[in-house]
Design brief:
Layout: H1 3-22, H2 24-33, H3 36-59, H4 69-93, H5 100-111, H6 127-155, H7 175-203, H8 208-219, H9 239-250, H10 254-261, H11 266-270, H12 272-294, H13 300-315, H14 330-339, H15 355-373, E1 382-383, E2 386-387, H16 390-417, H17 421-432, H18 440-443, H19 454-468, H20 472-475, H21 480-483
Antiparallel strand pairs: 1-2
Helix pairs in contact: 1-3, 1-4, 2-3, 2-6, 3-4, 4-5, 4-6, 5-6, 5-19, 6-7, 6-8, 7-8, 7-9, 9-13, 12-13, 15-16, 16-17, 16-19, 17-19
Length: 485
């Protein structure tokens, strides 16, 4: 067995053992609440996962833990799938009436921070089960930041090489050491934001359990809630205002937070993707607020509040809801469908296409138009004051094409399975963009994905993994040249 294969298995083994250890938290919570079936499932799932994970890690341990490019892709793609399988065990066997399809769907949705759910009756569920869903999203949130900041930039995935941190080695042979350094730094920032968010929620009247669970899913922009009414159950205390602030904070690049801590506060506001993100958010909120108030759906203050919250939630891919915006009318439905494809900044916990790719694509189109009008003119492409290489442009455009192609294909498959047009289109968009709820009566903000046929759930599960892993990370695994020596 080669050293690179050993490294892949070692990393996956450690990850499985770590998530199995995390299962002890909900296990003790459910045991304390008297939910013994759920507690027992968490305990034995923890034991099985911990044993298998450590057995693999110890069995393949090696002093040479460098990653080749191929191995880095395998670790990135394999980790989410393997972790989801083990995370689904206590959901499947904990007496929660979830079959394998639903348990895996819920686990994948949690780890990918999508927030689409097949679980109903959340208000009556055991606390450990609800906390486990929050923990999965919190783990997925920090995991995606590490890969977006440390691994994808070095592998040139989807234009992420634009955000290679200073002093990072361009060689993928040093991916793991660099990732470890970055993970240590951003983990503290991520944890601090989570604790501050929890305290802010508690100040609005949430109990400690709800405050911590929602803080974890807010900072992860995941959207899992402990209540069927989602964030709508806590609007009287003003929790939705807290959620808006932290959803926006989580949508910003964590690399800029690192610069902020190091005494460079201007780095955040000078970032063109941050500027573009806030421009989109403000414009969308204003437009949606004007629409709902003009349509007499709400009084002015309530309309602005509902429009702002749900718009931010959809753009950031968090998936919380305070209202069923599916009944706001066709213009609002169309607007929310388009906003699903926005996303936040690179290196954040958000999902979807992300702002910088639209900016690069627009700059590339403008450069091409100028070159057509003035063939001899030299028009270098620059982004944030830095030159953009042709390889980066190709990577961005390749991502956009692949994203649109997969969305179109998955929507067509969902339609062929028997879903209505609204459910098929919004379901494909919501899962590929990792937004959470879709549109329509079935999977809209007031519904769940539970009524869908199993075949549709498998398609959407694949979409969630592909979307969360920046599309190309998964597609490259299906190319023959990737596996050639």
């Amino acid at each position: 067995m080669s050293a690179s294969v050993r490294t892949v298995l070692f990393v996956l083994g450690i990850m499985v053992a770590s998530i199995s250890l995390a299962m002890l938290i909900p296990a003790f919570m459910d045991m304390n609440a008297g939910a013994m079936d759920s507690a027992s499932a968490f305990f034995w799932s923890s034991a099985v996962g911990g044993f298998l994970g450590m057995a693999v890690a110890l069995g393949v341990r090696t002093e040479d833990r460098n990653l080749t490019t191929r191995s880095a892709f395998l670790v990135t793609a394999g980790s989410w799938l393997v972790l989801a399988i083990f995370a689904a065990l206590p959901m499947r066997f904990g007496g929660h009436e979830l079959g394998w399809t639903d348990a895996l769907f819920e686990a994948i949705s949690g780890l990918t921070t999508t927030g689409a759910t097949v679980v109903t009756g959340l208000d009556a569920r055991p606390p450990g089960f609800l906390m486990w869903r929050a923990i999965l999203q919190w783990i997925g949130g920090i995991g995606i930041i590490v890969t977006a900041m440390a691994i994808w930039p070095m592998l040139g995935v989807g234009g992420m090489q634009l955000f290679r941190l200073e002093s990072s080695d361009s060689s993928s042979e040093k991916v793991l050491p660099r990732a470890a350094e970055i993970a240590t730094a951003i983990s503290l920032i991520y944890l601090a934001l989570t604790l501050i968010c929890a305290m802010a929620y508690a100040a609005t009247g949430m109990n400690g359990f709800d405050a911590m669970a929602h803080a974890m899913t807010t900072v992860a922009t995941g959207g899992y809630s402990t209540r069927d009414a989602s964030m709508g159950a806590f609007t009287e205390g003003g929790a939705d205002y807290v959620a808006m602030v932290f959803m926006l904070m989580a949508a910003l690049p964590f690399a800029a937070y690192l610069m902020l801590v190091r005494g460079h506060p201007a780095a955040l506001w000078r970032d063109p993707q941050v500027q573009g993100f806030f421009t989109l958010v403000v414009a969308a909120i204003v437009a949606m607020s004007v629409f709902v108030v003009a349509a007499d759906l709400y009084a002015p203050e309530a309309g602005i509040r509902a429009a702002a919250f749900n718009t931010i939630s959809v753009i950031t891919g968090t998936g919380y809801a305070t209202a069923d915006f599916g009944v706001w009318g066709a213009p609002a439905t169309a607007a929310f469908f388009v906003l699903m494809f926005a996303g936040g900044c690179a290196g954040s916990t958000t999902c979807s296409v992300k702002i910088f790719r639209y900016q690069i694509a627009i700059l590339a189109i403008r450069q091409h138009v100028v070159s057509l009008a003035h063939p001899r003119a030299i028009t270098p492409l620059r982004y944030g004051g830095r030159p953009v290489s042709p390889e980066t442009v190709y990577s961005v455009l390749g991502f956009l094409f692949a994203f649109i192609a997969i969305f179109t294909l998955s929507a067509a498959i969902l339609g062929a399975i028997g879903l209505d047009t609204t459910t098929a289109l919004s379901g494909a968009a919501a899962t590929l963009a990792n937004v959470g709820p879709g549109l329509g009566d079935i999977i809209g903000p007031s519904g769940t994905f539970q009524p869908l046929p199993d075949a549709a759930k498998w398609v959407m599960s694949a979409n969630m993994l592909i979307g969360r892993l920046e599309v190309l990370t998964v597609l490259i695994l299906f190319t023959p040249r990737f596996w050639q020596s």
